[in-house]
Amino acid sequence: MKTTVSQSFKIVVVGSSGVGKSAMVQRLIDGTFREEGQSTVGVEFKSFICPLEDQSVKLQIWDTAGQERFKSVSKAYFRNAVGAILVYDITNDTSFEDLSNWLHDLQSLCNPNAFILLVGNKADLEAQRQVGVQQAKDFAEQHRLDYLETSALSGQNISESFTRLAFGIANRVSNGQIVISSGAVKASPFKVEETPKQDNKQQCNC
Question: What distances in angstroms separate CA 202 from CA 49, 128, 206, one per listed residue?
C-alpha cells in the first residue's frame, strides 16, 4: 500500500569529520554498515519516509562534510533547514569540543526554531569512551537540545534518533513555531569532486 506523506522536512546531519554521520544515514536508509570509506566530499542527499503516530513525513537528509576545507559548502545547506542532528564521537573528545562551533552555525543559518538533536555516536566502543554521558547531557541541557547515544555499527538508536527528530519538528510545525516554506523542502545537491589519494586511505570517518 502506498504511503501518503503529509509533509517534507529539510534536515542536516552535522559534526566533525570522522564521527560517523554518513554511516548513521546509511544504516537508516538501507540497514547496512560501511566498515571502511572516505570522508563525505561536499554534501550528499538522501530521503527517508518516517512514520509518526498520525502521519508519515519525508525527511530530506543533507549529509554534510565535516572537514574544514568543505565547511563553507556544508554551511550553504544549513539555510532553511528545520531540523538537525548534531553528531560527535564518544571516543573523540575533540569532536565534542567542536560542537559549540557547529551549533553556532546551525543556530545562525537554520530556521530560528529548528529542532536540534545531539547524538553521541559509536556507543559500541564503550571501552574507548572519552566523552562521558553526563558531560553530554549537561551540554544538551545548557543548549536545550534533545540527546541520544547511537551506534551505526550495531544500529542502536539510529531509527530512534531520526524519528525523534521528525517528531520534534512536527510538533513545532503544529504549534506554529516552524512554518514550512518552499526553501525548507527544496534544494539541489552539490558535491565537490576530489581525486582520492591512493596513499592515504582512511577507516570509516564518514
Answer: 32, 19, 10
Look at residue 134 and give its three-state secondary structure. helix
pLDDT confidence tier of residue 38, bands split at 50, 70 and 90: low
Report residue 190 as a C-alpha cell.
552539490
Q: Which residues pair with 115 in a beta bridge?
A: 83
Q: What is the DSSP letter of 2?
A: P
Q: Which positions ≥6 away from 174 have C-beta within 8 Å? A: none
Residue-wise pLDDT for 119-159, tens only, equals 999 999 999 999 999 999 999 999 999 999 999 999 999 99
Task: Provide the whole-model pTM.
Answer: 0.83
| CATH code of domain 5-179 | 3.40.50.300
What tens digit of pLDDT does each residue of 67-106 get?
A: 554 455 567 889 999 999 999 999 999 999 999 999 999 9
Task: Dump the DSSP string for 81-103.
Answer: -SEEEEEEETT-HHHHHTHHHHH
C-beta separation of 18 from 95 below 8 A = yes
Q: Give Cα separations from 69 to 65, 104, 187, 194 (angstroms).
A: 9, 18, 22, 12
